[in-house]
Amino acid sequence: MKLDASISAVVTGGASGLGLGTVKALRAKGVKVAIFDMNDETGKLAAEETGSVFCQCDVLSDDSVDAAFAKAREANGQERILVCCAGGGNAIPTARRDKKTGEINIFPSDKFEWVLKLNTVGTFRCVTRSAAGMMTQEPIDGERGVMINTASAAATDGQMGQAAYSAAKAAIVGMTLTIARDLSREGIRVNTIQPGIFDTPAMARATPEMKQALGAMVPFPPRMGHADDYASMVLELARNSYMNGETIRLDGAIRMQPR
Prior knowledge:
- There is one protein chain.
- By secondary structure, the protein is of the alpha/beta class.
- The chain has eight helices and nine strands.
- The chain has a single domain, classed as NAD(P)-binding Rossmann-like Domain (Rossmann fold), CATH 3.40.50.720.
- The protein has helices at residues 17-28, 40-50, 62-76, 109-134, 154-157, 163-183, 208-216, 227-239, and strands at 8-12, 32-37, 53-56, 81-84, 95-97, 104-106, 145-150, 188-195, 247-250.
- Helix 1 (17-28) packs across helix 8.
- The termini are far apart.
């Protein structure tokens, strides 16, 4: 797909981190972008900085997602590109024994479900709405649109305490080919990026020493990934019309250790 001012895109989680890096890369190509994000303040700032449209959006809500797509399309027209970066997780062991008291605690089911709803269901909720919109458009060079979802190295190399996050991201990997097949007759491609250790706002609490140590774990290059590394892959997946139904690891060849 060509990337220019004739194309519109939606980026969920677009106010920070990988999402914001993607917004900047798309805007640099002239693409009209709508930022979907929960945070009103950072969302408006990101939109002003990049010349995008901000649509406050909670991917856990049908009504919120529907309203965000309606606002985005009113401003920019029907999106041909969807990039899903919205997500998050927690770190809770499946079951653990308190070292002092011996009390045994289990992972609360509601907290497990919340991570799946945010990452997997939230992604799928946006995919279905975007697919329906793309299907109303005439193909451009044979395709109506492209979707790029975000998984994680945790999908295959989950560390201790990441049961929910690993399950949620593995589900995104698992549904990639199926959705690509579902939408193939409509000329809509679907791919997933599986990032490793990236320097995002989630790392805000990490000290410089900790970040350096994390980067040193990566075989090559020995550093954490940057948002523009992710954004570069998004651009290639959007442009390359033969990339479909794939999950691509973007991790410097790291394989995560148990902890």
